[in-house]
Amino acid sequence: MNLNKVFILGRLTADPQLRTTPTGQQVASFGVATNRIWNDKTGSRQQEVEYHNVVVWGRQAEIVSQFLTKGSLLLVEGRMRTRTWQNKQGQNQRTTEIIGERIQLGPRSSQSQTGFNKPEAEETKSVSPKKELPEIDINEEDIKAEDLPF
User: Fold this and answer.
1) For 14-66, how does the pLDDT look when each residue is reduced to its tens digit (9 = 90+)?
2) Which of 45, 52, 53, 112 shows the smallest number of beta carbons within 10 Å?
3) DSSP structure string for 117-149
4) Which CATH superfamily is domain 6-126 in?
């Protein structure tokens, strides 16, 4: 049995680049940086950064280009793919990338002004005073097993 599955959680290294193929399909490519922190034998804190090339297609490409910018947190689930091609000088080029099958956007930044967040002026207009939630008091005698739906 073979398995080609990747999960990465990291931050975008640049704004995603959205393109359209000749057939009309949307594709977005972007870089994601992940880091690993550990203590070495001497107890010194060490950090290692890894950079990943990610490609997403279709609706996910549109979402990524619309809502994410450099520094945004993103979880990508996908598969690894290595492509080979010849450049203009006739030399073979090779790259390994993650083909994103599922994406999950990270928490929204309060500083971000993309379509994902409302501008501050709108937020302050729609803020209403907090209402207290009503307290519901149920006596155990009122609950009967035959009334439960499961």
Assistant:
1) 999 999 999 999 999 999 999 999 899 998 999 999 999 999 999 999 999 99
2) 45
3) S--HHHHHHT--PPPPPPP----GGG--GGGS-
4) Nucleic acid-binding proteins (2.40.50.140)
